[in-house]
Amino acid sequence: MLNLVLVEPEIPQNAGNIARTCAVTGSRLHLIEPMGFRPTEKNLKRAGCNYWNDVDIVRWPCVEAFLEAHAADELHLFTGAAPRLYTEVAYGSEAFLLFGRESRGLDPTLIERFADACVRIPMRPELDSLNVSNAAAIAAYEALRQQGFPGLS
Fold it and tell me: Is the dihedral of CA 78, 84, 85, 87 positive or negative?
């Protein structure tokens, strides 16, 4: 199962959009705290996502706990700082695609630690970045395309 990992997400609407992507693709969603919102029913409804019950969600108290469990797994960190494009790597069926906070992305220490696992989505250099939910959808569908869209019609 493909895994989308949100490291300290700040905006519930983005998490909701990514949860929708997970629901329709059969991917697992990992939420790493601290989050900039509480995943209460009110916040989830405000995020416009009625798919939360259709998503396998794993919550982690901190990035260290996530890495303790998955540092040896297939990780792909999405960051504008990476020299390699996201289309230049092969994604396994159990890959973990990591995305950082909306305000500042992944921590530099995490990027340094996993430099060989960092990839980027190309964009015009004078613009800031893609919305994280758009980036997650692009990444998920590339990984699933490489796998032949398993279980999808």
Answer: negative
